[in-house]
Design brief:
It is a single chain. By secondary structure, the chain is of the alpha+beta class. Helices cover about 50% and strands about 15% of the residues. Strands 1, 2, 3, 7, 8, 9 and 10 form a seven-stranded mixed β-sheet that branches. A hairpin with an 8-residue loop joins strand 9 and strand 10. The radius of gyration is 36 Å and the shape is flat.
Length: about 725
């Protein structure tokens, strides 16, 4: 079976476009071949800054043959009363390229119709590809694209050549040129490395593609280029010795995965070179030097036992003139580090505390206010959280609010440190260093705080309060950092909701989903007993937001909590059953979900959930009757007396277990009611005509409802088949 090769040759494509572009090409090719009923064995994609390519192995030579039935006019219109074919029948036969004698009658739900059976011979694959490959190419979307030449097509960068082969045959087509006659024609020609092998290359068969390109100094496989980069870095690091012990440096691949991915898409033939810089720059904060290398220049720092060495590694795209390449990169980095040193020395002339006043001139969000006003709110919210977590005397409570759950042990937190960290946490945004290196926000706050003789705890909290920066990022390790991060994020969410900046669909310009997720993750990973409802009310009070905002934000946070718990592996209905009872405490919700997931393994739980759903359905049918007082004298049947006694016998025990948050044991005890509830429904009619008796039995059901809803809502559990 033949192989298919398509290569789109271009000007330099941005590194971030290559992998998404290859993914689209793979999906489009799969859709094309499957839709056209052309079989294939496997697909490989290749990409460099100058080409996007796909190789499909084992392509069928043609489409599969198909047998179809084509319906024509109704039988009544196809034949007259004597059974002779009418003009309608003749016209149908003519349109299908057959004779009247080949037509058949087919019975359908709508009646009898004329039909013809046709055997469709599949088209050769090369014809199908010739027709569809131009559309596949121009169908690839990029964040930004451009027109060129005759301006008929758009692509990430101008397309310069197209290689299209099915085995050794060129798939002939033209891209663009329909109006200008200046399109790009497919061929079996490609080009090698721009500097090392710029001549054209003829590919005689797709199987030769990878090896032929490698001979021309083009490594088309992205993963192979990554391996070459990592190996080259490791080899170079071993050459950089520290001290006299001759010990080589090591490369932490995980720490620089993203940079390796990016650099691999910047070169076609990676060559790792080592350079150096003046040791005086090692006196700068390590993060500054590393950021200057990685973010601005795409260099790799050389480390030894987490200590930065005065060397760097650069991935060049050529083997030519390594000394010139090295010296050029050293010169560029020297200028970068010189600027960073200037910023570092200049910024320290003004303390973080002095910079807070300058925040009054900085707009945080146009509809909300200044950065200074945000800082004030963060201080107030963080102080409230800290005081409640501290659980000291009543006098320590912040304006009487309660932002944590009751029943926890006291936690010792330095309130003044929390306030000071909150006061300074945004001050580094006004420094020249953060202006030049925005990703160092918070990190530079840490260094400048230490330079201002702030405590280590305050400095670390400033650095940590931006965490987590993504859905799977680490959360703050210190309690003050966690408090500060939660205060900052909940303020941003409430403030944006207040002015209508609410995430919709895929639009979330202020990353509120990520910030909400951060709050949930911080609380869960630190087992913090924070009550989200009271936290949101505190933040709304600081923003002077309307009460409706509290409900909107709570719904938003509940969605993120639900998402988090399901991604942790809990069943969706288990999560729903727990959050229906209480979604205000993530830590508590996790305990409920864990207990319910475990107890669902018991055989009684599913039948019990069916019975509880029946209880809830009956109570919903009588929403106005909410009396839960049961009169024993009116319990006529043995089964309802037995159920009432069972409820009374476990009520206090369940309450005590819920207060201790021992939800598994509470559910285990509640599961013991299954038999009594089933017996009750088997022998007792709840909705009797006698109003007093009906109200008493509804009260008994309300007792069951109240008992179970202290833990979870079992009625929301789905039944297994």
């Amino acid at each position: 079976m033949p192989d298919l090769l398509l290569e789109i040759g271009t000007e330099e494509i941005p590194a971030g476009y290559i992998q998404p572009g290859l993914k689209q090409i793979r999906e489009a090719m799969q859709s094309l071949l499957c839709g056209e009923q052309i079989g294939f064995e496997g697909i490989n994609t290749y990409g460099t800054p100058r080409r996007l390519a796909i190789l499909v192995r084992g392509v069928a030579a043609s489409q599969e043959d198909t047998d179809i039935e084509v319906l024509g006019p109704p039988k009544t219109a196809a034949y007259d009363t004597q059974g002779n074919p009418t003009k309608a029948a003749e016209g149908f036969a003519r349109s299908q390229g057959t004779n009247i004698e080949n037509l058949k009658i087919k019975t359908t739900p709508k009646g009898k119709y004329l039909c013809v059976e046709k055997h469709i011979v599949g088209k050769p694959a090369i014809e199908v590809l010739q027709e569809n490959l131009p559309g596949l190419i121009i169908g690839v979307n990029f964040p930004k694209s451009m027109r060129w030449g005759n301006k008929e097509i758009r692509f990430a960068r101008p397309i310069r050549w197209i290689l299209a082969l099915l085995d050794n045959a060129v798939i002939p087509f033209e891209l663009g040129g329909s109006t200008s006659g200046k399109g790009i024609f497919s061929s079996n020609i490609t080009y090698g490395h721009r500097f090392l092998a710029p001549s054209l290359i003829t590919i005689s068969h797709p199987k030769e593609y990878v090896s032929s390109m490698e001979k021309a100094f083009v490594i088309v496989d992205v993963d192979k280029r990554k391996q070459m980069i990592v190996s080259g870095i490791q080899e170079e690091m071993q050459r950089q010795k520290r001290g006299e012990d001759g010990k080589g440096s090591t490369f932490n691949t995980d720490a620089f995965n993203d940079l390796v991915d990016e650099v691999a898409c910047l070169v076609e033939y990676p060559v790792v070179l080592a350079g150096g810089f003046d040791e005086k720059y090692l006196s700068l904060p390590q993060d500054v030097v590393i950021t200057s290398m990685c973010e601005h220049q795409r260099y790799f720092p050389v480390m030894d036992d987490n200590a930065l060495l005065p060397y760097f590694l650069v991935v060049a795209n050529t083997t030519n003139s390594p000394d010139i390449v090295r010296e050029g990169n050293e010169r560029v980095l020297r200028a970068r580090l010189s600027d960073a040193a200037f910023f570092w020395n200049s910024d320290r002339k003004v303390s973080l505390d002095e910079r807070v006043e300058q925040q009054k001139k900085v707009v945080w969000q146009e509809k909300v206010g200044t950065l200074y006003e945000k800082t004030q709110r963060i201080v107030e919210i963080a102080e409230g959280i800290a005081k409640e977590l501290n659980k000291g005397t009543e006098a320590q409570r912040h304006k009487g609010t309660k932002v944590i759950d009751e029943g926890i042990d006291p936690i010792s937190i330095d309130i003044e440190s929390v306030k000071q960290a909150a006061w300074l946490c945004k001050a580094d945004l006004l420094t020249e260093m953060v202006g030049e290196f925005p990703t160092l926000q918070g990190i530079m706050g840490y260094y400048y705080a230490l330079a201002d003789n702030e405590s280590e705890g305050v400095a670390i909290a400033i650095k940590e309060h931006y965490l987590p920066k993504s859905f799977d990022d680490n959360v703050p390790e210190t309690l003050i950092g966690a408090i500060l991060s939660i205060a900052d994020k909940i303020d941003s969410i409430v403030a944006c909701f207040q002015v209508g900046l609410i995430p919709t669909g895929s639009e979330d310009p202020y990353a509120l989903r990520r910030q909400a997720q951060g709050i949930i993750n911080i609380i869960l990973k630190n087992s913090m007993p924070i009550n989200l409802l009271l936290l949101v009310e505190e933040a709304c009070g600081c923003c002077h937001a309307q009460k409706e905002i509290t409900l909107e934000v709570m719904r938003f946070l509940k969605q993120r909590l639900e998402y988090t718990l399901t991604t942790m592996g809990f069943a969706a209905d288990t999560v729903a059953a727990a959050l229906e009872v209480d979604s205000s405490s993530p830590s508590d919700a996790l305990l409920r979900v864990t207990a319910l997931e475990e107890i669902r393994k018991m055989p009684d739980i599913e039948p019990l959930s069916v019975s509880f759903k029946r209880v809830m359905n009956i109570l919903r049918s009588e929403p106005l009757v909410r009396d839960d007082k049961v009169y024993e004298s009116m319990l006529k049947e043995e089964s309802e007396r037995k159920l009432y006694q069972s409820i009374c016998g476990i009520k206090e025990t369940v309450k005590a277990l819920v207060e201790k948050k021992d939800y598994f044991e509470a559910l285990r005890i509640l599961s013991g009611l299954r038999g009594d509830i089933d017996s009750f429904f088997d022998t007792v009619m709840v909705m009797v005509e006698a109003p007093d008796l009906r109200r008493n039995r509804l009260a008994l059901l309300h007792g069951i409802e109240s008992l179970f809803l202290q833990v979870v809502d079992l009625s929301l559990l789905r039944q297994t088949d």
